[in-house]
Amino acid sequence: MNKPCAYCGMTDTPRHKGHVVSKCLYPSTTPGDIQRPTVPECENCQTLWTDAETQFRNILVLAGEQNHATKETWETMQRSFTKPSGKRWVQDIFESMTEVSADDGARYMVHPHKDARVNLVLRKIVRGLSAYHNLRDCVPDDHVWVGIPPANFPDEFMRYDLGAGFFQYGIALFETDLGIDADSGWLMRFYGTREFIGVVANSAEKKLEIASHFDAS
């Protein structure tokens, strides 16, 4: 593949067709005619999130309500736990859990947005989709903010669908006259109920301002 890496812009290392949304996240029954976004990806960048994508899948499947997509993916997860890295992946899940009080005693929950590897993969997806839609190539990681939306997304905002119950997303383009120093916003919904927002800022400093705004709201 001759094009530069969509994430770092490098051309002097081997590139291949990289899946913006990791293949391990797709349910086994995902239709073959579903468009799976891909971009040029170098081997160096791939190593940054390969392990994180497994944690991302595991945490998202366990978080929130279940549907047919999570049930199918859970079967894949169980098989992955028999691999040499399986014990470590199980340990990572337990370390991500927090104890909460319930009427029938203590329970344990996972909070995707508090996991560093989940955030890494969300930023990678935003960067990859930005390149895939020809909005901005080689978005630096420190220009991207991701977080939890203040309210659920209306279905009509989710323009793109990678398979029923698996992953939907929408794009908001910011005009300069709006006073927002960013070029795009992203609405992401995984497995029907796990929703995140992302913003591609025009600088690392503006990303921090955006993060402060959302943290304060």
Q: Give the SSE string.
A: EEHHHEEHEEEEEH
How far the N terminus sits from the C terminus, by CA atoms, comes to 44 Å
Provide the gyration radius in Å: 18 Å
Largest beta-sheet characterization: 5 strands, antiparallel
Shape: globular
Offer a concise description of the structure.
Helices cover 34% and strands 24% of the residues.
Task: Describe this protein's structure.
The longest helix is centred in the first third of the chain and has 20 residues, at 43-62. Helix 1 packs across helix 2 and helix 1 (43-62) packs across helix 4. The mean pLDDT is 83. With 217 residues, the chain is α+β, with helices and mostly antiparallel strands. 34% of the residues lie in helices and 24% in strands. It has helices spanning 43-62, 68-80, 86-96, 116-132, 204-216, and strands at 15-19, 38-42, 97-102, 105-110, 144-147, 160-161, 167-173, 182-190, 194-201.
Offer a few descriptive terms.
globular; five-stranded antiparallel sheet; 5 helices; 217 residues; 24% strand; alpha+beta; two-stranded antiparallel sheet; single chain
Describe the secondary structure blueprint for this structure.
Blueprint: E1 15-19, E2 38-42, H1 43-62, H2 68-80, H3 86-96, E3 97-102, E4 105-110, H4 116-132, E5 144-147, E6 160-161, E7 167-173, E8 182-190, E9 194-201, H5 204-216
Antiparallel strand pairs: 1-2, 3-4, 5-9, 6-7, 7-8, 8-9
Helix pairs in contact: 1-2, 1-3, 1-4
